[in-house]
UniProtKB/TrEMBL annotation:
It comes from the Bacteria. This is TraB/GumN family protein. It is found in: Membrane. Keywords: Glycoprotein, Hydrolase, Membrane, Metal-binding, Metalloprotease, Protease, Signal, Transmembrane, Transmembrane helix. It holds the Pfam family TraB_PrgY_gumN. Its cofactor is Mn(2+); Co(2+). It is a single-pass type I membrane protein.
């Protein structure tokens, strides 16, 4: 079976066949990194396509408002109600020192969203974004930027992962002052640089962070499934450069395997 084959080491894949007049491309991104510079093969693929499709439509003016609306926990749950008093105190001191907001101020926000505010602090460098680089090029080419899912669809993932689990992870982050997370980010960036998409999948499955390892279905697999019909429609409409998190690409239920299953030819670009 073609889709059982091992993925080659590449972050860039060409999608053809299955009624496409011109190929589209699939690229694995990393949302935060120390070096977001794009390789020549990626720039060539951007030249050959006519629009950029990311996980979210990141140039949508309503995106910030939607983000704000989806940040709060449902049913009156608070971070305080999810943590022991001494743990809440530790989180409070940690957040005040690192993001300038107390846990009291962020009490109703989903703990995952609070953790995300800390990402820049987890890198030993100035944070860069691969998505931002892709958007820059799309803009210079006067191309449309579209999204595979809405903000509310993406953030609904963090209602599906129990708030308690999210809070437990935030407590660990606060108590060890991000040491675990910093180590994990360093490893992840190294795997990303190696372009080994299978290793990215294994890495998420073995993550010490339960949010990543325990809820792979919610974070990755279910979303991959949802994307395939959308990607098919988009690619048939015009040649598209798809940029999604690299952990979505590999594995039996990754985007590469699912596109092949849907009848496309998906080949690594070197």
């Amino acid at each position: 079976m073609a889709f059982g084959q091992k993925s080659d080491n590449s972050l860039l894949w060409k999608i053809s066949g299955n009624g496409l007049k011109e190929p589209s491309y699939l690229f694995g991104t990393i949302h935060i990194t120390c070096d977001a510079s794009l390789s020549d093969k990626v720039k060539t693929a951007l030249d050959k396509t006519q629009q950029l499709c990311l996980e979210l439509d990141m140039d949508d003016p309503n995106m910030q408002v939607e983000m704000m609306n989806s940040m709060m926990m449902q049913n009156g749950v608070t971070m305080k109600s999810l943590a022991k008093p001494e743990d809440f105190k530790a989180v409070d001191a940690f957040l005040t020192a690192n993001v300038g907001f107390s846990a009291e101020m962020l009490n109703t926000v989903k703990p995952f969203m609070v953790s995300a505010m800390l990402y820049p602090k987890m890198l030993n460098c100035e944070m860069q974004s691969v998505e931002a680089e892709l958007i820059k090029i799309a803009k210079t080419q006067n191309e449309e930027v579209i999204g595979l899912e809405t903000v509310s669809e993406q953030l609904a993932v963090f209602d599906a992962i129990p708030y308690q689990e999210q809070m437990n992870e935030l407590v660990i982050t606060a108590k060890d002052n991000m040491q675990r997370d910093k180590t994990e980010f360093t490893e992840m960036m190294a795997i990303y640089k190696s372009e080994n998409v299978e290793a990215m999948v294994t890495f998420t499955e073995k993550s010490p962070n339960a949010m990543t390892s325990k809820y792979g279905d919610v974070l990755l697999k279910n979303r991959n499934q949802n994307w395939i019909s959308r990607m098919t429609t988009i690619a048939k409409n015009k040649p598209t450069f798809f940029g999604v998190g690299a952990a979505h690409l590999g594995g039996k239920e990754g985007v590469i395997a699912l596109l092949r299953k849907a009848g496309f030819t998906v080949e690594a670009v070197y």
